[in-house]
TrEMBL record, chains A, B:
GO molecular function: DNA-binding transcription factor activity; transcription cis-regulatory region binding
Organism: Labedella populi
Lineage: Bacteria, Bacillati, Actinomycetota, Actinomycetes, Micrococcales
A Pfam entry, by short name: LacI
Name under which the protein is recorded: LacI family transcriptional regulator
Residue stretches making up the HTH lacI-type domain: 2-56
UniProt KW keywords: DNA-binding, Transcription, Transcription regulation
Amino acid sequence: MSGISDVARMAGVSKSTASRALTGGGYVSEATRQRVLEAARHIGYVASTNAASLVTGRTKNVGVIIPFVNRWYFGEVLEGVEDALLACDYDLTLYNVRPGTPSRSRIFEHFLARKRFDGVITIGLDPSPDELDRLLSLDRPVVSLGAQYDGVSSVAIDDVAVSRLATEHLIGLGHTRIVHIGGERSADLTGTVHGRRLRGYLDAMTDAGLGAETLHVPSEMTLPGGYAAGVQVVSNLRSRPTAISAASDEVAVGAIVAARRTGVQVPAELSIVGVDGHEYAEMFSLTTVEQSPREQGVAVVELLMDALGGRQESTTALLHPTRLVVRSTTARPRT
Amino acid sequence: MSGISDVARMAGVSKSTASRALTGGGYVSEATRQRVLEAARHIGYVASTNAASLVTGRTKNVGVIIPFVNRWYFGEVLEGVEDALLACDYDLTLYNVRPGTPSRSRIFEHFLARKRFDGVITIGLDPSPDELDRLLSLDRPVVSLGAQYDGVSSVAIDDVAVSRLATEHLIGLGHTRIVHIGGERSADLTGTVHGRRLRGYLDAMTDAGLGAETLHVPSEMTLPGGYAAGVQVVSNLRSRPTAISAASDEVAVGAIVAARRTGVQVPAELSIVGVDGHEYAEMFSLTTVEQSPREQGVAVVELLMDALGGRQESTTALLHPTRLVVRSTTARPRT
DNA sequence: CGCCGCGCTGAGAGCGCTCTCAACGTTATC
DNA sequence: GATAACGTTGAGAGCGCTCTCAGCGCGGCG
């Protein structure tokens, strides 16, 4: 275990000078710097971030709080965040807070309190008041991706708008009996992604004078969830809708599979539109509103770096662009 | 920022005693311990793991090296590992080494060298000689999941056996024209998961006297990859096989979608079997050989904890059980 | 009664760094 | 020529802990 003193001795300078040369602070003559660098390389010296943290208080580590790892959006975001953090020379400590797990509270109460990070990125997190309290009392910058809450800068897309856009696409094609498949309906339609997407659907329907026709089939935000809901929609022969506005592409693809399996033609008998730009969308020719989670991951890291560098201009909420991609799961309804 | 001295002062003891009471080492009277604990709770004291690491050399942190986050198997494993690590009071630092990314070498050369962990878990890693070298020279325990390499204990399934089992299931049903869809064929059929699964298929075919009939369509180990390969298989009208042995469930589901889309009946005209026990398998009624990545994640953490606790009994290679689950994508071939 | 061992406690060294501060030689300024 | 300023360096304190070691009171034992 070679320390900085070894490097210093080998380069014939003091610990202080070696430190300066290595970390790049203060005055060091170019010659000395080279000598120190050479010595360090020679004995394979790597600074102990630990010891450095102890004195500087900065850990070169960022905590990432994420509810799921195994869903497309979250996986993409995580990879984007990881890449961006590495580029800034930061490690990433993962805190997987699956909702309803006992470990979730343990993370908030115990692990976060250790403050082994310079800042925190939360992804798609809808914190309880207590959790938010703990987060803010960490005395470290916190930024959020895919969700907005009090006192925290964020990067996200306009979930209401994307769902509205998707629904309006269906309305524009002439559909009137449009059903929305998505998450549970809760009292508050702004606290969750699926809530906001339900709201976008409702807004579009209301604005088109179809307010009385709205229909919401709740489902998990997963492919199997969409499948189950799709089966339900399709088997409802009496008043089968002519189109589905799904809260996400995973749900939409599930619905497509359900329709095909039941012999319902897509889009001839049933149009389906999703939201996300999932990697499966193209394969299923799914019409969808695309977003770019990877880029959002990079953006939220930038936001955090600003905060860490003291370049924080109060609380900001960045909205990333999205775009409608029309493929072949949507068409005019049969007259 | 309250330190241990504050706790000590408040409890009316020395720093040493406070430390003993808090970390549970050495002699402390029960009364004193309670007093210290109470004081710590009162001022919300949380020990700086950083400072502790500096003296003990243990970080209470584990590095996890993973090539993908966004594939089912890896996501499941990661969640299992995270859960198990939290239970042992360890943090998880994520190193996402996507193959071919420039960040991959940076991680091996720079980030790992910082040694901010007590041990390393590699997931499905096929390290280059140089990478393996760097890994072992870290002087920290390394354990591997889903891949075996020199000098490292591992947890995995028998990838050759599962694929052989899946293929034998098809052979048992009477199929002879069976094609394998899976990863690139490389010179060495043991270094990668898809290589070993290809080998299992080849072994089963050869043992059944069908050695001359083997056919391998390479594809990415993803759903779109399986779709593309499936299209290719299905459109080959002259000598269409009666069954597909897919290297993974994602590939198998892709092939199912391709078949349905082309109007080929599954399983009437084409049987398809996968490997993994993917969350989509049930929804597609896919016959498959199930494994349990989550449990494997837990198991590999146990292995690492043994190594960290000095209970390492040389290098072990645990094989986890798998089982064939017959659903309805496989049937006897039409005569 | 003296000594040892046991249970408990405190003093203080030191983990590997960074950073402040003083010192020193050299050059610019008046 | 005296002084200031600048660039460069080293000494050493101290980050917040753990851990070794010595000390102290007390009961058991020879």
